[in-house]
Write a structure and sequence with these properties.
Residues 41-53 have a biased composition (Basic residues). The chain has 421 residues and is of the alpha+beta class. The chain has nine helices and 20 strands. Strands 3, 10, 11, 12, 13, 19 and 20 form a seven-stranded antiparallel beta sheet that branches. A three-stranded antiparallel beta sheet has the order 4-6-7, with helices on one face. It binds ligand 57R and cobalt (II) ion.
């Protein structure tokens, strides 16, 4: 690991490392010998290899191990800890712990950085091609195909981190198209793209919002600012309830004018960011978006998804519509299953996803069919958790921005930061 050179915040990681392709173009040195003359004395043609940068393709298809042959993936944006944790930046002891940590494959940050680079390259293409008129299923598969190719999917070693969230308008989270979904993206829609990439269970969770007409630009600006406040104020020993207060303050300092009516931007009170554990998208700690008295502290070495949701509606979501998102409950009680279809479905879930979230399209991709009865049985038995879409009132508009941060011993790393957001 290179000595942690202080990266200025705006210095986002390079898109493709120093992967160069040998392009031999044989230099004819001097005038070509007249053909045939002085056969024997053929002068040795000097092979000059011109280095050509291997660029990612469109759509993205090149596995990142080809673009980062030395296996070192770019560090994210670095932010120093504040107040009584500022000493960590220069503390010999902390830098030593960090160097030691890097040696240990379990702790090294290279897995999450690889997942982050996949996320940046896939979203770069997605932001370019997602346009009104596209089917939601095609948008989801474009993102998932890119992720699978670039992370070089390999069972539970590396792959898609959780279902591609494509929640629209008043729906804020947990909508993904189910098989047969014919929904088409509209000109006036506000789309939350929330997708994940994992390497050895280290899940990179990052999200952004797209709109195709300027009506709600201010809403997106408010939520991006609130998320950046959350990232800036996050830190070792920071209390989750206080952090929520900083996020709320930023969010509520914005308003949106919609068809002449000025609407306040509200943080959604029952949605949150969350800690992330290996193979576990929600690590148990929630970063709410409204000030509260949760004294729980952020701790050194933790991974957090800092995400905020803003709404022009009630600022509260309810479960609404058909469910697509599911996940096996980490330490689910072992209950005997009488339904054989449920038993075999659980086997397939354990084999293909373990405790990583999945959706119905991924079950079908894994070869499952007529699985709904068995799936609902596993939910009813408390073995699998269902996560229906979470929506504010019809007519409201919601937006989301999210990054994954690492609370490293010496400083904070916004590992999913990019040139885009
Ligand atoms: O990040 C089954 C998933 N998550 C995918 C992501 O906040 C998550 O409900 C969970 O697929 C399951 C929320 N907070 C309450 C606990 C207060 C939501 C919203 C954001 C999201 C999608 C999330 C939430 N809860 N867990 C991660
Ligand atoms: Co999240």
């Amino acid at each position: 690991m290179t000595a942690a050179v202080e990266k200025k915040p705006d210095e986002v990681p390079p898109s493709s490392a120093d992967a160069e392709e040998e392009v031999d173009d044989v230099e004819e040195d001097g005038a070509p010998e007249a053909q045939g003359a002085g056969e024997g004395k053929k002068k040795k043609k000097k092979k000059k290899t011109k280095k050509k940068k291997v660029e990612q393709t469109e759509p993205p298809t090149i596995g990142l191990s080809k673009l980062f042959p030395d296996g070192n993936y770019p560090e994210g944006e670095l932010q120093e800890y504040k107040d009584d944790n500022a000493y960590r930046t220069t503390s010999e002891e902390k830098r030593y712990n960090e160097r030691m940590a890097m040696e240990d494959p379990e702790v090294t940050y290279n897995n999450i950085r690889r997942a982050a680079e996949v996320h940046r390259q896939v979203r770069k293409y997605a932001r370019k091609v997602i346009r009104p008129g596209m089917r939601m299923i095609d948008i989801a598969e474009t993102i998932e195909n890119g992720t699978r190719a670039l992370v070089e999917e390999n069972g539970l070693e590396s792959g898609v981190g959780f279902p591609t969230g494509l929640s629209l308008n008043h729906c804020a989270a947990h909508y993904s198209p189910n098989p047969g979904d014919t929904l088409v993206l509209g000109e006036k829609d506000v789309l939350k793209v929330d997708f994940g990439v994992h390497v050895k269970g280290r899940i990179l969770d990052s999200a952004f919002t797209l709109n195709f007409d300027p009506t709600y630009d201010k809403l997106l600006e408010a939520v991006k600012a609130a998320t950046d406040t959350g990232i800036r104020e996050a830190g070792i020993d920071v209390r989750l309830g206080e952090l929520a207060g900083y996020i709320q303050e930023t969010m509520e300092s914005y308003e949106v004018e919609v068809n002449g009516k000025v609407l306040p931007v509200k943080p959604i009170e029952n949605l949150s960011g969350h800690s992330i554990n290996p193979y576990q998208i929600h690590g148990g700690k929630s970063v709410l978006l409204v000030k509260n008295d949760d004294q729980t502290k952020m701790e050194e070495g933790e991974y957090f998804a800092i995400e905020t949701f803003g709404s022009t509606g009630r600022g509260k979501v309810i479960e609404q519509g058909e469910c697509s998102h599911y996940a096996r409950i980490v330490d689910a009680p072992h209950v005997p299953l009488r339904l054989t279809s449920a038993k075999s479905l659980l086997k397939s879930i354990n084999k293909n996803f373990g405790t990583l979230p999945f959706c119905r399209r991924y079950l079908e991709r894994a070869g499952e069919s007529k699985y709904l009865l068995a799936l609902n049985h596993l939910v009813a038995q408390g073995i699998v958790q269902d996560y229906p879409p979470l929506c504010d009132v019809r007519g409201a508009m919601t937006a989301q921005f999210e990054h994954t941060i690492l609370l490293r011993p010496t400083r904070k790393e916004v590992v999913s930061r990019g040139e885009d957001y």
